[in-house]
Specification:
The protein has 387 residues and is mostly helical. The protein has three domains: 1-38, no CATH class; 49-86 and 94-138; 152-363, no CATH class. The chain is 61% helix and 1% strand. The chain has helices at 2-11, 35-38, 44-60, 66-83, 96-99, 109-114, 118-130, 132-135, 148-151, 156-162, 173-176, 186-203, 212-221, 224-227, 235-246, 252-267, 275-302, 308-334, 342-373, and strands at residues 23-24, 31-32. The protein has a two-stranded antiparallel sheet. A hairpin with a 6-residue loop joins strand 1 and strand 2. The longest helix is centred in the C-terminal third of the chain and has 32 residues, at 342-373. It starts with a helix and ends in a 14-residue tail after the last helix. Residues 80-99 are annotated as: Disordered. One of its GO terms (molecular function) is zinc ion binding. Residues 13-46 form the HIT-type domain.
Length: 387
């Protein structure tokens, strides 16, 4: 019985002491059952710190313009005014615009947070949960979404600005492979590299060149082909290998969309131009890796005691660069073979979509069953005092 009791204590929410503890606070390690208990005043120090960090991150984000930050703060201000009839704030609070007057929205993030009222901080939390904050930031449109029919409607300069330039000096594959033919698995390895590429582009919302070192290292680590020299025997394996490296921090929906991005790049902008997007993507991968390699070399050169991690990273990037150069040469001569992987990639995309749909249906079914199992409040007493 003692063991059972201890197990129940571990599984019970430490805030309400009623429901099972489904989550653990990363700050204090306390077990809690849901958002209501997480936000309870008993746990106020941790939840307040969490929401503050979210606000700091949103305001510190260099990808968000000052105008977009101002829009977010104006939404908080409008909410406060709408609620003023129901619950008045302190007379010292004043309008949000007055409290933030003179502050730099790009740099004074700590001061901005401290000048928000409790209601505004709570509203920020609500906006974060329901996705309104993401609506304030313009989502990047990938260059591979540029349709052929749209290309005719825009200027040449706009096309060049949107699609990465293909490098001029591409290795001749016939000189690299003088005694053998290219392996049939190269097409799958290219798929693996492309998946890691679209992941990085999406992750940084198109601003990967603002932080080339971090973006390049994430790209290499996201591709077993580039980081470990793995060989993929099928397009499905190429996708799954990359997913294994990045799925722990991304939603299933996000990963499924990445598969579709790879399909679009391989398919190209139109008939007769199937290789344009593949060559452009591989060229940008190469340029990004070279930029990171150059930065690492510079760091090692000026450092009085270069770290082993820096040396290993430099070597890793060097090998990855050579592989991408090889894939560019292969794509230039044999790239049309990539079209043969499209049917399997579409099947993989459909399979993942069905898995997600099935998981969502099971989740909804469980939630409905749990709701039905809970006793309904019919107005009658569940416990009566004995007289």
């Amino acid at each position: 019985m003692l063991i059972t009791k201890n197990m129940e204590e571990v599984r019970t929410c430490k805030i309400c002491h009623k429901d099972p503890a489904k989550y653990t606070c990363p700050r204090c390690n306390i077990g809690y059952c849901g958002l209501t208990c997480y936000r309870d005043k008993v746990h106020g120090d941790c939840s307040e710190a969490f929401y503050k960090e979210c606000c700091m991150e949103a305001l510190d984000n260099h990808d968000v313009s000052s105008e977009e930050k101002q829009n977010m703060l104006e939404m908080l201000d409008r909410f406060e005014k709408e609620e003023a009839d129901n619950e008045s704030e302190s007379d010292d609070d004043g309008d949000l615009s007055e409290r933030l007057a003179g502050l730099d929205l790009d740099n004074d993030t700590e001061l901005i947070w401290n000048r928000l009222t409790e209601k505004e901080k709570a509203r920020f939390n609500e906006m974060m949960k329901n996705g309104q904050l993401s609506d304030l930031v313009e989502v990047w449109t990938p260059w591979w979404d540029l349709k052929r029919e749209k290309i005719r409607d825009v200027s040449t300069d706009e096309i060049e600005n949107r699609t990465p330039a293909v490098i001029e000096k591409i290795p001749d594959i016939s000189k690299l492979l003088t005694k053998s033919k290219p392996s049939a698995d190269i097409r799958n390895n290219v798929v693996n590299a492309l998946f890691a590429y679209v992941f990085v582009c999406r992750l940084y919302n198109g601003t990967h060149w603002d932080c080339p070192r971090e973006a390049a290292l994430k790209l290499v680590k996201g591709s077993d082909v580039l980081s470990k020299g793995s060989v993929c025997s099928s397009p499905g394996e190429a996708i799954q290998l990359s997913m294994t490296n990045i799925e722990f921090q991304q939603s299933q929906e996000f990963l499924i969309n990445l598969v579709n991005d790879v399909i679009k790049i391989i398919r190209g902008p139109g008939r007769g131009e199937e290789l344009i997007f593949v060559m452009a993507a591989l060229s940008e991968i190469l340029q990004l890796l070279k930029k990171c390699h150059s930065l690492l070399k510079k760091d090692i050169k000026v450092s009085p005691a270069p770290s082993s991690d820096g040396q290993e990273g430099k070597q890793l990037l060097f090998l990855a660069i050579k592989k991408v150069e090889f894939y560019l040469g292969w794509s230039q001569k044999c790239g049309m073979i990539l079209q043969s992987v499209l049917p399997e990639l579409r099947l993989e995309h459909g399979r993942l979509r069905e898995e997600l749909q099935g998981a969502n249906e099971i989740k909804e079914s469980i939630e409905r069953n749990l709701t039905n199992l809970r006793p309904s409040n019919t107005g009658r007493k569940l416990v009566e005092e004995l007289k």
